[in-house]
Amino acid sequence: MTDSALCDLSALELRRLIGRREISPVELLDACLARIAAINPAVNAIVAMDVERARAEAKAAEQAARCGDRLGPLAGLVIGVKDLDETAGLRTTYGSRQFETFVPEEDCGMVARLRAAGAIVLAKTNTPEFGAGANTVNPVYGPTGNPFDPALSCAGSSGGSAVALATGMLPLATGSDTGGSLRNPAAWCGIVGFRPTPGLVPSEKRGSGWSPLPVLGPMARNVPDLALFLSAMSGEDARDPLAAPVDPDTFFPLAECDLAGLRVAVTEDFGFAPVSAEVRGLFRDRIDRIRHLFGAVIEASPDMSGADEAFAVLRAEGMLARHLPTYRTRPYMLGPNLIANIEEGLGYSLADHARAHALQTAIARRVHAFFDRVDLILSPAMALQPMPWTVLAPMEIDGVGLRSYYHWLALAYGVTLAAHPAVVLPCGTDSRGLPFGLQVVGRRRGDAALVAAAAALERAFAGIPGCGRPLPDLAALAAMPPIRDRPGADMLAHVGRS
After folding, report:
1. What is the value of pTM for the model shown?
2. Active site residue 205
């Protein structure tokens, strides 16, 4: 089998072939390296690699398979890790000049679990500075381009992971999500991103351990791959107050889901989110194409009153907890998104914080009650279709000003506040041939049921004209000049320079 063919197989099929000794993990590693060499210069998704360790682990996995040893669920699969998560011996910069040369001695908990499941960590994937923002560009590595047009943004903050998956450079990659950070790039790159219930994928790194806003999660090219990845990611970790024991068979193999038995609510904007006319039109078109799949479809939304206020305060609270010392001593080390969040946070009072927590609680209760009427909520994943990465964030939609650099992400952060699981599925393209993403929200703690429904939707979409997953033109990408040679690629080069 050719290197190119291996890269285009699903992670699930690759794992089966490795288990049957029909391919070697070494062959898969070589195929990924060849695809990275051909495609990555045009998009800059992969920013650091540990080829030596990956090759040693691939050879060990090959030997284990030959000897008939019991193999882990991810045995021999090459993966990428978002550059916000520590990888032993592999540079982890968080997209910040502060950590430009940092090489961790230990893996973070999630990476350790993935290695224990047999995954081979080859690469770090690009992210904006500390994940702040939905445009993957930072002062260390520069921008990551959209796989359908590298002059456009891939969104973020898990943009590098999304692009690596869309182009077949890696079969699996990790993400994280506060205001849509793995859902946003999934939508713009035509792959699948899953925001799990907080604590399902434990993280010992959250400074505010009880906050349900930031989560870690899986990204993949299809839902069965994502389910396999999630089964290895999830688990118990006493260092995360929100974590709980998880049955390893909860997510994989996938459960069956009869879409015809589901009641679905559809909403263009959750009643509060700014959304462009283009996206509203695309969403209505897709709903018309898939409406027949469900038992009942209603146009309705839970009451999201107070979502903008609550998210603004709670997001700023998290930023202050992490970055206020640097802001006070070395502000030149921080980029514009972090500065904006910190200065916004310094303007809030204790009363503002109390009100924000109360608003979030009320939203969560209303969303939970809404699911007495429906099984799923469908919405657009993003308020806009892809824009140039030279625009750090839009400040208006259809001529109407936005309240902050992250206000355009309200479709995602409204769901974040409710702490419900959500998945983004590719659902055709726009008039420019760029991916359109559909957000599907499930019941409280209903992660397994949501993943099963997503798999059924994905299968159905493949047979409906205009709803299948689009694929980027790899030959065109391979022929393009490096993205770092494009005008504006050094637009954040000054950050961190005193």
Report:
1. 0.98
2. no
